[in-house]
Amino acid sequence: MNLIRLRKYWYILSLLIIVPGLITFFVKGLNYGIDFTGGSLIEVKFEKPAKIGEIRELLDELGLGEGSKIQSAAGNTVIIRTRDLTQEESDQLLASLEKNFGSLKLMRNEKVGPTIGKELRNKAILSLAIAFTLMIIYITVRFEFSFALAAIAALFHDILVTVGLVSIIGLEVDGAFIAALLTIVGYSINDTIVIFDRIRENLRILHKEPLEEIIHKSIIQTLARSINTVLTVVFTLLALIFFGGVTIRGFIITMLIGILSGAYSSIFNASPLWYDFRRLMTKTA
Predict the structure, then answer these.
(1) Nearest C-alpha neighbor of 190 from the set 135, 127, 250, 228
(2) What are the residue ranges spanned by the domains of the chain?
């Protein structure tokens, strides 16, 4: 079995994941958190379980029900997102929650204006654009431009898969989501560069063999390293999902999706894409 000859199947598998995610993204959108939309987020932990419906009724009584979101989490924890609250409104809400549902512990009480949220969104896009530009320059200098194109295409694959699945699942998108995306990009490009480096070495050593065979052998030679690396990261992320607490769970799940996608794209997409780009450039020249 030659991985390069089967590349169309790898592309189709990627599309089967990306297309539903894009449809959900454009129809449903992302579940933007307080960092992007602006407003108030209050996270409390009750001593006894509290029903979401009853909390919703309380918010309606206080005039905070419109546009608000209530999410239950492990350990009798409840996360409430509302419009931007004044300090007086925030204190009143906490007092009403304690009065109606018993003793509670305030875990978070955050506020961010819509202007700050918009600025954060723009900076996030700028950060990714700068990262991609620097990667293109670096890979072009170290290898060649076709390698850079393949690597960036694989990174776009990882971002589309991650954003699409996050949209489908409905995970909250906040500042930590941007940190996760940048981490995923860094992880994925590192794995891709390792394979590209082996391809470059084998192009000199095995120059008499067909190009698709050289690429296939290069992938196989680095496969154990790629699998071992991703498994150690995945095991750590799984442990954090189950034992790390609800506060970072969204960030960790996003990381898990991206790391798995990055491992897949580095092995099954980046090198096959380089093969196709190189053939296309050779025909054009």
Answers:
(1) 135
(2) 7-33+116-284, 39-112
pLDDT at 107: 85
What pLDDT does 117 receive? Answer: 64
Q: Taking all residues of the chain, what is their mean pLDDT, rounded to a whole number?
A: 87
Confidence of residue 67 (pLDDT cuts 50, 70, 90): low
- The pLDDT > 90 percentage for the chain reads 41
Homologous superfamily (CATH) of 7-33+116-284 is Multidrug efflux transporter AcrB transmembrane domain (1.20.1640.10)
CATH topology of domain 39-112: Alpha-Beta Plaits (3.30.70)
How far is Cα 92 from Cα 176, in angstroms, rounded to an integer? 29
- Is 165 within 8 Å of 21 (Cβ atoms)? yes
100, 57 Cβ separation under 8 angstroms: no
Tell me how many degrees the CA angle 272-155-196 measures, rounded to the nearest 5. Answer: 45
Measured between alpha carbons, how far is residue 70 from residues 9, 41, 56 in Å? 42, 10, 7
- Give this prediction's pTM: 0.78
- Identify residue 208 by its one-letter amino acid code: K
